[in-house]
Amino acid sequence: MSKKLFSLKALGLAALLCASAAANADITVYTSEAAFNAAVANRGVDTFDDLPLGALSDTLNRTAGAYSYTASAVDGLWGAGVPGDTWLSTNLRTDSVVFSNFTGHVSAFGGNFFGSDILGDYVPGGDLVLTAADGFTLTYSLNGTTQSSFLGFVSDGDLGSVTLTSGSNSALWPTVNNLVLAVPEPTTYGMFLAGLGFMAVMARRRRG
User: Fold this and answer.
1) Taking the C-alpha atoms of 186, 191, 193 and 197 in order, what is their torsion angle to the nearest 10 degrees?
2) Which strand (E) or helix (H) includes residue 5?
3) pTM of the full structure
4) Residue 134: how many CB atoms within 10 A of its CB?
5) 110 and 152 Cβ atoms separated by less than 8 Å
6) Based on the number of CB atoms within 10 Å of its own CB, is 6 exposed (0-12), middle (13-18) or buried (19 or more)?
7) Longest C-alpha distance within the chain, in Å?
8) Which residue, 117, 96, 90, is CA-closest to 167?
9) What does the pLDDT average to over 105-118?
10) Which of 148, 146, 153 lies closest to 127, judged by CA?
11) CA 179 to CA 57: how far, in whole Å?
12) What are phi and psi for residue 110, nearest 5 degrees?
C-alpha cells in the first residue's frame, strides 16, 4: 500500500470519527482545572466581582471574555461572598441557576462550585448537582465541595445550557465563582474541516 493511499485512508477515518461525533454530541467531565484548561482554547472568565452583595434580579446578562451568556433563577439570583470577591448564588436554596444563551459556539463550561449559607457566606462540604445539555444531557454530582472545587464540561457540540442545583440532602445554597467559557482546541476544528474536505474529494472522484 502506498504512503499516499495510507494517508488518505487515515484522513478518511478521522473524517468519519469527526462526523460521527458531530451527529452524536457527547460531553466530557473534568474535575481537574488543569486538564480542562489543556482541552480548551480562548478561555473567557467571569469572576462576578462586579456584582453587588444581596438580592439580584431573576435574570442577568453576563460576559466571560469574548462570550456572553444569561444566568437566571426563578425566584431571583443573589450576590454572595464578600466585597471584592463576589459569587453568584440563588435567593432561595431550592432554586437552580440556569446558564444559557451562550454566544460564540461555546462548547466548554467550567468553574468553582460550592455551597453558601443564607447570608451568602461560604460553607464547606456542600453537595451540588450540575446538568449540561447539548442535545444530549449529562448530570454530575459534586460532593463535599470547597471554594476551590472545580468542575468542567467539554462538549463536541455547542452547549445549550448548564444547570446548577443543590443536592437533595444539602441545606446550602448553590454558588459559583470564576465561571469559564471556552471552545475546543483549534486542532479539533482543523481535523474536522480536513475530514470534510477529504470526503468531498472522494465523492467527486466516485462521480468521475
Assistant:
1) 160
2) helix 3-23
3) 0.80
4) 20
5) yes
6) exposed
7) 72
8) 96
9) 98
10) 146
11) 19
12) -155, 180
- The residues facing 84 across adjacent strands are none
Report how far residue 14's alpha carbon sits from residue 46's, in angstroms, rounded to the nearest whole number: 35
Angle between helices 3-23 and 186-207 (to 10 degrees): 110
Hey, what domains does the chain have and what are their CATH numbers? Answer: 24-207 (2.60.120)
pLDDT digits (tens, 9 = 90+) for 83-95: 999 999 999 999 9
Find the Cα–Cα–Cα–Cα dihedral 157, 112, 95, 170, rounded to 10°: 120
List the one residue out of 158, 147, 151, 157 whose CA is nearest residue 180. 151
Tell me: the pLDDT tens digits for 121-151?
999 999 999 999 999 999 999 999 999 999 9
Enter the C-alpha cell of residue 38. Answer: 489543556
Q: What is the CA radius of gyration of the chain?
A: 20
Give the burial class of 117: count Cβ atoms within 10 A of its Cβ; 0-12 exposed, 13-18 middle, 19 or more buried.
middle
